[in-house]
Amino acid sequence: MNRAESVNEKKNVAIISVFAAVFLTGSKATIGLLTGSLGLLSEALHSGLDLIAAFITFLSVRVSDAPADIDHPYGHGKTENLSALIETILLLITCIWIIYEAIHRILTGNVHIEVNRWSYIVITSSIIIDYWRSRALMRAARKHNSQALEADALHFSTDIWSSSVVLLGLIFASFGWYYADIVAALIVALIVIHVCYRLGKRSIDVLLDKAPIDKFKQINEILQKIPDIISFHDVKVRNSGADIFVDLCIHIDPLFTIEKGHQIADNIEKTIQEEIPRSTIFVHIEPDNK
Question: pTM of this prediction?
C-alpha cells in the first residue's frame, strides 16, 4: 500500500468514528436528560468529548502524513502524538465533572432517576457501536503505526467497559437502588483516569523523544547481523507519529573505498526499512583504526 492509500484509509476510519460519536452523544444526552440518570449523563459528556477527540484525530491524521517541508524537515508526524495528548486532557475534564456531580448528588440526596426501555436501548447500542469502532480503529492503527488512531481505539474500548458499568447501574436503579447509578458513574471516572494515564504517558514519551526500547533492541539485532560492520555505536531512535528516525555510527575496514562504504550504508538502510516500515536512517561511517 502506498502512502496516499494509507492516508485515505486512516482518514476514512477516523471520519466514521466522528459520525459514530455524533450519534452516541446525541442519544445518551437526550435519554440522560429525560431520565435524570447521572450514569447516562456522564456517558453523554464522555461521548461528547469523544466527539471532539475523534474530530481532532481526523484532523491530525490528515496533517501528520503531509510531506516534510522547509519549516518541518522531519515531517508532521508528531501532530498525531499531540492529538493523543489533547485527547488525554479532554478525558481528565470528563473525570472532574463526573466526580463533582456524583459527590453533589450524594450530599444533596438527589439520587432518584427514571429508568425506561430507552435507557437500555441507548446504552446497549453504545456498547455494540464502541466494540465495532474500537476494533476498526485498532486494526488501522496497527497497520499504519498511528498513535492517534490507537489512542482513539483504546479510548473506545474503555467506553465498552464504562457503558457496561452504567448498564449495570441502570438495572440496579430499576429495582429502587438509585445509589447504584452514582457508583456506576464513579467507576466510569476511575476507568477513564486509568486510560488517561496510559495515553498521556505514551504521548508525552514521544513528544519528549524518549527512545522506543523495542525498536532500539530490534535495530541493534539487525546491525549485529550485517556483514562488513566491525562495530557500531551511538544508535539513536525516536518516533514521530507513524514515522521512525534512526541515527547510528558504524566502523568499517579503513581500506574500503568510499563506494564500498556507501554500499554498506545503503544495505543498512534497506535492511532496517524492510523490518521497520516508514523508518528514516542516517548512517555515519568511520574507519576502524584499532
Answer: 0.63
